[in-house]
Known about the structure:
The complex is a heterodimer.
Chain A: E1 5-6, E2 10-11, E3 26-40, E4 46-59, H1 67-70, E5 77-85, E6 95-102, H2 103-111, H3 113-128, H4 133-138
Antiparallel strand pairs in A: 1-5, 2-5, 3-4, 5-6
Chain B: H1 3-14, E1 17-22, E2 25-29, E3 32-36, E4 44-59, E5 62-76, E6 79-80, E7 91-93, E8 108-110, E9 113-117, E10 124-136, E11 142-155, E12 160-166, E13 174-178
Parallel strand pairs in B: 1-4, 6-13
Antiparallel strand pairs in B: 1-2, 2-9, 3-4, 3-8, 4-5, 5-10, 7-9, 10-11, 12-13
Amino acid sequence: MKPTYQAGVATGMLLVAALAGCAKVVxxxxxxxxxxxxxxxxxxxxxxxxxxxxxxxxxxxTADKNASQNGDDTYAVxxxxxxxxGNPFLDQPLIIKQFFATGWAARTAAKTPGFIQxxxxxxxxxxxxxxxxEEQRTMPAPPGPTR
Amino acid sequence: MTRGAMGLIGLGLLLAGCAMxxxxxxxxxxxxxxxxxxxxxxxxxVSQVARIGVFVEGGTQWGVGLGYAERVAVAPRRVEGxxxxxxxxxxxxxxxxxxxxxxxxxxxxxxxxxxxxxxxTPLFVRRExxxxxxxxxxxxxxLSIGVAIRTWSEVPDNAMVRLHFDASRPxxxxxxxxAGAADAEPPxxxxxxxxxxx
Lengths: 147, 198
């Protein structure tokens, strides 16, 4: 198995309200940085990093208007977001696979059997995937025998 | 100032370039290498432009930099589910070059001036910078010294977007967008992953 890190996997979510921000569209960003970096993320927080850093950000805007009254729907988001990355110099390139629906497209998809099956399958894959080395390292140790 | 430092500055100025993206037209002044996907294949327009030296960027994204910079942009060929026509095929033109016209799918070099038009708003962008870069705009807002590799993607309202990007094969990026009416049935083949393996 290629020693890549499965980093931001999120799926099967119908988000009714989400992160606040100034962006007016659903946006996703990733960053790999080595050195000094001062950047403003999509969620509008300023990030200063020195050395190595890796970031994945999803930004889902709030609507200015009452979507349920106007018949519009800018709240609903349904999707999967999968990022794989490793050392780009060792044939471990960045791979992004994403599938997102917003607004009424998300609401319709959430009621369509084919999409329900797809997102259910994806959720199952995420729940059953083996933990990465990083996750295993940070996982709390099981309680040992006591005397 | 040492002779070496002066030489580096001179080389940087020699390689200096400028990129301007405005109103659906991209202009590149100075040396750049570029490649783009075959406009007759795939479901998206992919472009990859790289440059080295001192560079300035303007238009939809502003910035200055020193070192190596690369930008991959992916725009959908058409929006499914709507009556909108297919986006016009971008034309890559080197007006001041006597070599043969650029070819899709392979690296090309532009020394003086490169014009790309018409271009549509990309829904996915990957920016890579080795060196110093200060940039501001929707794609990134950052000041970095060292290595910075960023991606940015956007999903329009009331739409369905599927993206598959592999940094080792950027020209094979797949991007599909559907934006049908509120009562329209979304296409089930958006869930078929086997079609998305490059």
